[in-house]
Write a structure and sequence with these properties.
By secondary structure, this protein is α/β, with parallel strands linked by helices. The chain is 42% helix and 12% strand. The chain contains 13 helices and 12 strands. The chain has an 8-stranded parallel beta sheet with strand order 6-3-2-1-12-11-9-7. A two-stranded antiparallel ribbon has the order 4-5. α9 links the parallel β11 and β12.
């Protein structure tokens, strides 16, 4: 991806959400706060493509500084925009395709990664929190078919192809949930999962896709709200060991680290929302997410009002989407039509085997 200009940098370190399909006065006030650096959109923010584009435009107009606009739009169960967007199959379908033929599956992954990114970019969304790099071990229900495969090397190959498709559309990639959420049974939205495996096993298996994706140019990582008991008493998003010693020092990752949502039950171990936010940035997160809790967002905005990191600012700028003047032509042309057909085949195949 081409180098981004250093002008008009993302200056805030908090990503929050908005109430509905149009901005409220309260939303606009939060977006104008100097600590706000981004917005994550959910299904409640979507009605149709035209409405979405208008909402994104109003979000950008509400802030005196540039904002990152993101979404969880992986495919399968986790796809926030439905009507008017192509329905995407879960990533496990690509893993099944890989088992039948690696070369065809990698091409599929690239085309579907491009399609996801291209459709989001048409609404001026900067990036999706994708791809999932967790191992599909059949243990963690909340991950389930969101994972490409159980084999970390196959995950690495498919995720890289998916990411390069995103790059084709001008979108950066976010690998999640570092170092791996696939071996715990609990849902971190509801509980605090504890992974009791030894650290070497986690690094040799779960971390392997991150090593590969970093070498391929992955721009960002989201850590898991999981405690890896043999490595650290803190969950990964609050862990200096995982974010600094492993991710930054050992893996030489210089991209963005986004916290997972600080309002999730698994993040409660961090204390108050202000304490969670400070613990996350102290551990190494460049931007913290606070979702579905407006008062908590206000608390975090206040806590990080005076926080400033030149390094985080430099990294976050990489998440700004790249402009592609021919994207609409590609999306409604031969490549787009082919990708839509491939997506439909994947959805049908997964429905038939469900």
């Amino acid at each position: 991806m081409e180098k981004t200009s250093d002008t008009a940098l993302i200056s805030g370190n908090v990503m929050l959400d908005v109430a509905g399909v149009e901005l409220t006065a309260e939303d606009a006030e939060r977006l104008a706060h100097p600590a706000c650096g981004g917005v994550i959109l959910f299904s409640r923010n979507y009605d149709n493509p035209r409405q979405l584009a208008a909402l994104v435009s109003s979000i950008r107009a509400s802030s005196p500084t540039p904002l990152l606009i993101a979404v969880d739009h992986e495919g399968g169960r986790v796809q926030r925009f439905r009507d008017g967007f192509t329905r995407l199959p879960p990533m496990a379908w690509l893993g099944q395709c890989y088992d039948r033929g690696a070369e065809d599956a990698l091409q599929l992954a690239r085309e579907l990664g491009w399609l996801m990114a291209a459709e989001c970019r048409m609404a001026d969304i900067d990036f999706s929190f994708a791809p999932v790099l967790d191992l599909g071990l059949g243990v963690c229900e909340v991950i389930g078919d969101r994972a490409f495969h159980a084999d970390p090397d196959i995950i690495s190959a498919l995720a890289a192809a998916w990411m390069h498709g995103m790059h084709d559309a001008g979108m950066a990639a976010v690998g999640k949930h570092f170092p791996g959420h696939g071996a715990v049974t609990e849902d971190s939205h509801l509980d605090l999962p504890i992974d009791r495996r030894d650290t070497d096993t986690i690094i040799q298996n779960d971390v392997r896709p991150y090593i590969s994706m970093i070498s391929e140019g992955m721009e960002a990582v989201m850590p898991a709200h999981v405690i890896y008991q043999q490595a650290d008493e803190h969950s990964a998003g609050f862990s200096h060991f995982w974010l600094q010693q492993i991710l930054r020092d050992q893996l030489k990752f210089d991209g963005v680290i986004f916290s997972d949502d600080l309002s999730m039950a698994a993040a409660e171990s961090g204390g108050s929302y202000a304490k969670r936010a400070m613990a996350a940035v102290d551990a190494g997160c460049d931007m913290v997410l606070v979702c579905n809790q407006p008062q908590a967002a206000d608390e975090v905005l206040h806590a990080l009002h005076d926080y400033h990191s030149v390094e985080s600012q430099r990294r976050l700028q990489r998440m700004v989407a790249k402009q592609n003047s021919d994207l609409a032509g590609q999306l409604f042309g031969k490549r787009g039509k082919k990708a839509v057909k491939l997506a439909a085949e994947g959805v049908t195949a997964m429905e038939q085997t469900a």
